[in-house]
Amino acid sequence: MGIPHRRIRGVFLVGVVTLVVGCQGEGMNEAMAPPLPGELAILPGVAPQALTALRERSCQEIKNARPSSGDGEYVLHFLGDPSRPWKAWCHDMEGSPKEYLPLPEAGLLSNFSQYTAGGAVAGTPVRTAYSRIRINPITLQVDTSDQTFTTSTGQVTHGGRPVTSMPYATAMSCDWSDSGRANIDLRGTPFKVAPDYFVASGYAAWGSREYSFVDQVVTLKGGGYCGSFAPLNAEGLVGGQLPLFYAVPPTTWSPTARVYPTGGSQTQAQTLQPGWYDINELTVGNDAINAVHVPRGWTVTLHENAGFSGPQRTFTGDTLLTGSDFDRRASSVSVDAPVLVYANNGYQGTSQLLRAGRYDIGQLTVGNDRIRSLKVPAGFQVTLYTDSGFQGQRLVLTQDTDLNGSPFNAQASSLVVESTTTRNGNVLYGRWSASGGQNPSSAANRQFLVEYTGLPDIVTFDLEVDASPYLYLLDANGQVLMEANNADGGTHARISYYLNPGSYKLVAATTQVGRSGEFTLRSDRARLRYPQRLSVQAVSAFNWVYDDWDTGAHSDVSIWRPNLGQTPGYYSLGDIGMPHHGEVPRMTFVVSGEGDVLARPVDYTWIWDDKGTGGEHDASFWHPVPPAGYTCLGSVANLGYGKPSTDLIRCVKNEYVLPANIGWVWDDSGSGGNNDITLWQANARDHRGLSTSTMVGQGYYGDPDGGRFWALNKSALANPELQGGFVDDLSALQYAPRIWLHNDEYYWPSSTEFFLPNVHPDGTHLWTNEALGCDSCTNPQFLDGQRPDQTHVPVYAQIVTRTQGGVATNITDIIYWTFYPYNNGKRVCIGLYTSGGGCAGFYSTFGNHVGDWEHLTVRFVDGRPSQVYMSQHSQGGTFTFGNKDMASVGFHPEAYSALGSHGLYPDAARHTYERIFNGDTLNDDTSRGIAWNAWDRPVIFPWQPMGTFTGSLSWLNITEDWGNDASGCNNPVSDQTGVCVLNSGPTAPLKKGFPSPGSMALE
């Protein structure tokens, strides 16, 4: 099945070498198809309005303004309108400048004209491919006769003279048929083709045209004896004029690989981003691929069999497969587009392959200040920084570049790679309580800062909200550059604007004053942030404040306050309530802010005191009163009955918080106190909020007031870890867990390289080379593993972008795999077990197995952490990121590995995970022994299918279970539980269902 007609959107990426140094800056009203992955859809009815001076309309005007300008790519503006930019190639700038339209889609089956040989003309087909077309910037007429930027092949004899090239948009033949071919492909530009503007001419001439992709693509067939199919009033071998229309500024245009069936048009082609496409994902069909289109620097590999197996062919350029041994033989396809950096000039020496993402100084295996040349595939962008932490001067590259002679030669200490699907943009969330309407300076609207560091280009901003959005783009001084709403009353307002690198502002507003609601703001290529920086820091030390000892309440509570001794300059947002005595919260976040983003409460309102309860401690509870424009997130307790200090906590500006869900903690029912109290807890409603677990008190029983519960807006926080966007190798380091091994552990973890030489496969299992000795014996010494405090033991971090229906979502998981050579089973009573009398029989150990895979997963939504999952045998526990029950070291989750069996838990304790038939229990014991830091040189890899890994990761292709087969199963316990003395080794990690991109379950 071919790709359906699509309404194309996208900005053309610079197609020539373009280097930028420094940090300074100054409608299609048709039914639209859903956006392709990574795209922002064009919106019908959007009414943008540019408010700045007219811009250059022609290359001559650029020359007039800047006489030294040479030939190259520039941004012109149709009719001088800043809201209608387009990319032009200015030619002959030293003489009489001419405008050419660069064609992003130039290749085998795009932007060509063909005179097909045969019949009355001898020779070989004449095919002329166009990379740029001559265009009048005022009338938008294309001169189809101009062949300045073309390549041609073939020759026919027509009317006694040789023909070696063809005008643009012309299909011709002389064989009584329509075998002539041509294609117009304006995708990646803001233009579309005039409708029904093609005619047949000549003798017995006929032809046809197929418009697609919102009239940006036209496929032509034509011929006769002899005849052509070409634009109106054009001559077949001479050319003429083809009118275009300006539609809307496109969003980022990304090149793609494509595969075609026999005779396939653009609408039948399947577009492919870098990745893996098995037989069930080939919409072009099985054994159907007849041609491939390969962008510069990419590779397309066709595999004869499904599962990326069998003979294969790799292509680095456009190829027609007709007559080859691989024509219509592919059952799976892999596409790659690697960025390579080299330690020597001339693309020589030590190299490092880079995926999309951020690479700080410690991640550059090629070395600091060592990069001297780079290979950058089409559609990719690499930004080099002179300093670590993505600071200092920068250099932006979009093509293969040798830095010899450049100030950046061997000067890079960090870099960012952007791909066709992963850009350096991010998503923000916000809310209005009562918006200020169409007023960019209203304090009731929401203002954001924009940092654009790419090449001068068209950047798109999108505001999504149910309440009639209105969006402003301002320069750094607050001057409005453009404003837009959705004229049809829809949910999006969008601005596409040509930006130089620099700082800008956005204002999220609504068409009417006083609207309330929550919104999402995104950019395809720029970084967005809130105007004032609010930072958080995790704390795990707390001071006891109060507990209800001897109050007689039906349930227990203890109140804790973050200890700020290790976090100077940070403040608490409220106290934490725990539903037990003596149980300390494991973590919360405290805050620090610049300017007036934080404020003291102006007062407190009394909630409750313990008078009449007979409790051991005299205490009172209070809720802070925020200044106007601020929100206080939590209540506080105070020993005694006096009002607490207003310096105890801080309140946060309203725009930095989001509504939260409500969780019950405690009430004093049964205490006999003079007053009533219920303690609730504010919990993040979804991935947008960051919970601080602060308590919210009310002086009565019953349902709470939902308007008092708030969480921090995660996207408003200034921490680098919470900026959103990339989930990459740097993310894997930033969020790698600390795993506490038990004090008495004796079956340690190991690397796979340590384990595998000691086992051999039999087709179903990996068996130990040396016999175990018995079903519960561990004679081979390697089963003891490796102590992480004595040798480096890596954790394996797998990055999985989740998909739905094959389309990437905004959810990415990092699965931290840990491996142990041996799992020690559980001591089980053989006989009846009672809690008072113990085991009436004897004990034996069940559930041992060679090999043990465990994992901890951090889930990201829009590039920010949302949840943490800890595996525990066949089950597990899920925690909201920031949950008070899960400790963090900075942004590193802390987990505790169970003694011998290695399940992961959030605390040091005994965890009963199963009660068996005879009354006995199965328990996991954890304690704070050796710290195993997963961020110490982990092995990081993205998802790819089993069977395709090479080199040091080839062990991921192993399909056998990772240990000996089961044994010791003939006994009453095994009969009842299905658990043997020696269980089978665990399933290979990638054979488990959840690492597959299409599996959305967090497990």
UniProtKB/TrEMBL annotation:
Any Pfam family: GON
Keywords, in A-Z order: Metal-binding, Repeat
Gene3D superfamilies: Crystallins
Domain Beta/gamma crystallin 'Greek key' as annotated: residue spans: 337-378
MF terms (GO), sorted A to Z: metalloendopeptidase activity; zinc ion binding
Family recorded in the similarity comment: Belongs to the beta/gamma-crystallin family.
Protein name, entry field: Beta/gamma crystallin 'Greek key' domain-containing protein
Source organism: Cystobacter fuscus (strain ATCC 25194 / DSM 2262 / NBRC 100088 / M29)
